[in-house]
Design a protein that fits this description.
With 187 residues, this protein is an alpha/beta fold. It is 48% helix and 12% strand. Helix 4 crosses helix 5.
């Protein structure tokens, strides 16, 4: 009986407050040396937001993660999109080694340290931001800082996110990953 009550309360909580729980760590841009656009299945909105931040002068370089091969071809749609949107080719950094958000954050920390950068903007979708905040708080620390920036995907409708199957699927995957990350990394 208590398991059923817990499930009902959890579903009610997420229905009412899920948008704040998942996307609550989103911040406002500030001047940074690097804009990080995280890879993933639905990354078009992330690329768009990263390119906007670059064009608005919030960052000097853009790191795009999620490539599966070293030296991605110049014809890759992500690189073409960024260049068409006004991002200079020399400002784009690609990552093909990271296979998880944890590894991406470790890469970002190493780039920051190697280049003497103090602040980065990390762009992802709203349901991803809570877990990212835990990861980046654990990895990017000391003299380095970060701001999480939310993309604006059409499928994420604040207050009614639970009515969209893509948003629900993403949120449920994030909940599972949050539990895993708590046990695996202690974040």
């Amino acid at each position: 009986m208590s398991i059923i009550i817990t499930q009902i309360v959890s579903v009610g909580f997420l229905s009412l407050y899920g948008e704040f729980f998942f996307s609550g760590p989103a911040g406002i841009p500030r001047k940074s040396e690097l804009i990080v656009v995280l890879g993933g299945n639905m990354m078009f909105d992330r690329l768009k937001r990263g390119a906007e931040l670059y064009r608005e002068g919030w960052g000097e370089k853009i790191l795009v993660t999620g490539f599966s091969e070293p030296n991605p071809p110049s014809e890759d749609w992500r690189l073409r999109y960024l260049k068409r949107y006004g991002v200079e080719g020399k400002s784009i950094i690609t990552d093909f080694s990271s296979t998880s958000s944890w590894q991406e954050a470790r890469l970002v920390r190493r780039l920051m340290k190697d280049n003497g950068w103090s602040h980065v903007l990390v762009v992802s979708d709203p349901p991803h931001l809570r877990r990212l905040s835990w990861i980046y708080e654990a990895i990017v620390n000391g003299d380095m800082s970060f701001t999480l920036i939310s993309s604006s995907p059409a499928w994420w409708i604040p207050h009614y996110w639970w009515k969209n199957s893509d948003a629900v699927s993403f949120a449920l995957q994030e909940l599972i990953k949050m539990i895993y990350y708590k046990f695996e990394y202690g974040v």
